Amino acid sequence: MCKKMLSHIRAGALATLVTLVTLLGLGLGLAAGPVFADAEQVRQALANPARPQADRQVDDQRKPAEVLAFFQIEPRMTVLDIFGGGGYYAEILSYLVGDQGFVTLYNNEAWHQYMLKDLEARLADDRLPNVDSYVADPADLINQPDQYDAAVFVLGVHDVYVDDPDNDWPLIDRERFFKGIYKVLAPGAVLGVVDHNAMAGSDPAIVSKSLHRIDPAVIIRDLQAVGFTLEAESQLLRNPNDDLSLPMSDPAHRWQTDRSVLRFRK
Questions:
Q1: Residue 145's pLDDT band (boundaries 50, 70, 90)?
Q2: What is the domain partition of the chain in residue ranges?
Q3: Would residue 76 be called left, alpha or beta, if left means φ above 0 and alpha means ψ between -120 and 50 degrees?
Q4: Cβ(69)–Cβ(37) under 8 Å?
Q5: Which fold has domain 34-265?
């Protein structure tokens, strides 16, 4: 567990303890059970005036309020943002989980270097004090002791199937990586996945590299193989008019692709 995360959690735990003692002293009851985020809570996070304008411009297309509500992210959670890129979701999660929660923005070295300028701006001057940037080889994740309450893997699962060493992206040992994700999640934790859909039955080794898409059946198969259970699928980002033969980055339908939104459970 990183020192920043540990110190932040300790501070949050102390604040919770103080609140608990105060409420008990006042004779007030405490609500039982988890406090799941709903779409309104996420919208409040989206409305934070500190969010960059560039992020706000794609909210309508990405629907983060609905996506994170579907993933059942709770206030005070510790969340792993896998291949979080430049931190679009990490910042929203930062505001959503609050001072008593924590977000680890995880990238491999290739993603980190590609998004370095955006990351430095987003995390400058500790502007997101409950977010930590973590860079490691995907094969090393399995060695980490952290037990996160949830993880999100948004628009990056297809990259796990890419083999492109000429562009600094060697093939990832996806079974070990997925097992690592499973290991660092607490029992009962959610793994939320969003990705660009490819044609059913398409070869992930081909379409992941050429189109940056993936057949959702491949994601489901490979995550179930390491122990995850597919709990639910949302139609939030489906687009039946999307041409699945085109790259997801095609300017004609940028942020208009047919995307799967999947909720897995450990």
A1: confident
A2: 34-265
A3: left
A4: yes
A5: Rossmann fold (3.40.50)
